[in-house]
Amino acid sequence: MKSEKKIEVEKLDLPFIDPDEKMEFIKVDCPSCSAKVQAENIDLQSRIGKCVQCNALFSVDKDLMHLQTNVKEREKVKRPEGVEIFYFKDEMEIETIQPLPVLQIINLSLTPFMLIFSLLLYFLKDVENAIYVAVFSAVLVAIGMYVVLRRKHHKIYINVNEHEVSIQRRPRHMVKDMKFDRNEIEQVYVKQTTDGMALCFIVNGQDGQKHHQVLTRIRDISHAKYMEQEIERYLGIRDKVVHGEL
User: Fold this and answer.
1) 53 lies in a domain?
2) Cβ 230 vs Cβ 85: under 8 Å
């Protein structure tokens, strides 16, 4: 009797594929003669198409932008550590930790230089002023360490209800609360700034659209994109590509 050969089966961790999900695609027609343009006659880098029927050159930027927008809508960001979200009746609240206040960053940045300055005064035999500078530096260090240790209790709250979207900082650190009519928010997006990332609103007003930076100095891209995603989802806003966004 022949021995049966044991076959080892390895389970593969494959991504879930939704059978009902429709793949996004576009077909491009020549704007001059309406002939179908083959994909091989479209340069994706320059976004220029060429019609072999009438030799016309034309831009396909709008077609590709439409496709990019639909692809972007399917990308989902999972909730990252450091961002909490709560629902109560008709309200949604997002909670995250405040970035260090600008004045505190300046404080921590200048403290080492002040300590060096106090040592310089000491070696120059100006002991009295050296002591004053050293004591002042120590006080700044103590304040800075206290703020850093207490930072986990300094929160930003984004509240969305049936009337408005509000952004509150507690404690405020001399920053006013922001409020927007939820029906006037056209789009939410994230952009890169000189000191990190910013969460921005495009708001429709009587004088036209305005771009508002509602949260700044965000260091983690997953935090920013998750907040953008959840705010748009709760407001029923269709995500669109904004020039200059991340």
Assistant:
1) yes
2) yes
Look up the pTM and report it: 0.56
Q: Is residue 92 part of a domain?
A: yes
Q: Two tokens at 76?
A: 């989902």
The domain of 25 spans 12-75
CA 186 to chain centre: 17
Task: Render pLDDT for 194-246 as a digit per residue (tens, 0 to 9).
Answer: 878 899 999 998 888 899 988 888 888 889 999 998 999 888 888 888 888 87
Rg (CA), the chain: 28
The structure tokens listed for 157 are 């709250």
Q: Which two tokens stand for residue 185?
A: 């928010």
Q: Tens digit of pLDDT for each residue in 79-112?
A: 888 888 998 888 899 888 766 555 565 666 666 7
Between CA 95 and CA 85 the distance in angstroms is 6
Co-location of 87 and 175 in the same domain: yes
Looking up residue 35, the CATH number of its domain turns out to be 2.30.30
Are residues 215 and 171 part of one domain? Answer: yes
